[in-house]
Write a structure and sequence with these properties.
This protein is α/β, with parallel strands linked by helices and 213 residues long. Helices cover 36% and strands 14% of the residues.
Length: 213
């Protein structure tokens, strides 16, 4: 499995509910990752993508963000299309896919029941996001997938939420000069309902590429 010194330890005990859920999943599926999911990509990247949390049968199973679930089926081909990844997305952490000038993480590193982390759980994971952003010395743009990720990034950077409202394809220049851009989460629900289309998601990355050019 992947490992990442910027994230929580495999036996992280900060969130009792998530620890209990992890233990239950480990009993049911002992050959799965069943732990905090490390970030994917290099720390010298200019783009950081922040999601919500690992999916139960996706990243919680494979140990790599957005890998093995429907959200990854949209995210990774889009990254390849726009030059932020190369190789073949094979639904596994060892498929050989490589990120280019990008890094992917989650606001909450352990899978939550019903894919809904609580406020305290999000706050418990916040220091890991703070450290990760601080360690990315070339970072220019953060892409938040969904409102929870958007708010987590603002909290990590000690920015006021009221000053930067979430909106699909919204672009915010934060007080320190970092750019925060938003997208609806690339979840099955959002794509099935038409809230997010492949074209809409691609447009977000077109804007990112233009700003990094």
């Amino acid at each position: 499995m992947l490992s990442d010194a910027m994230g929580p330890a495999n036996d992280c005990a900060l969130c009792p509910r998530l620890v209990e859920f992890r233990a239950t999943n480990a009993t049911t599926w002992p050959d799965w990752h069943n732990g905090p999911v490390p970030s994917f990509g290099e720390l010298d990247a200019e783009l950081l993508i922040v999601g919500l949390a690992p999916g139960l049968k996706g990243a919680n199973r494979t140990g790599r963000p957005f890998t093995g679930d429907y959200a990854g089926d949209l995210l990774y081909p889009t990254l390849i299309k726009h030059g932020y990844a190369k190789g073949h997305y094979g639904l596994s952490f060892n498929d050989g896919l490589k990120l280019l000038n990008s890094r992917i993480t989650n606001a909450v590193r352990c899978v939550p029941p019903q894919n809904k982390p609580t406020g305290p759980e999000t706050r418990s994971c916040l220091p890991f996001l703070v450290d990760e952003i601080a360690a990315m010395k070339n970072l220019k743009i953060v892409l938040a997938l969904g409102t929870l990720a958007h708010n987590a990034v603002l909290s990590a950077l000690q920015e006021k939420r009221s000053a930067y409202k979430f909106g699909h394809n919204a672009v915010h220049t934060l007080s320190g000069g970092l750019i925060l851009t938003d997208s609806y989460h690339c979840s099955r629900y959002n794509t099935n309902t038409g809230k997010l289309t492949e074209a809409m998601f691609s447009e977000v990355f077109e804007g990112i590429s233009a700003r990094l050019a």
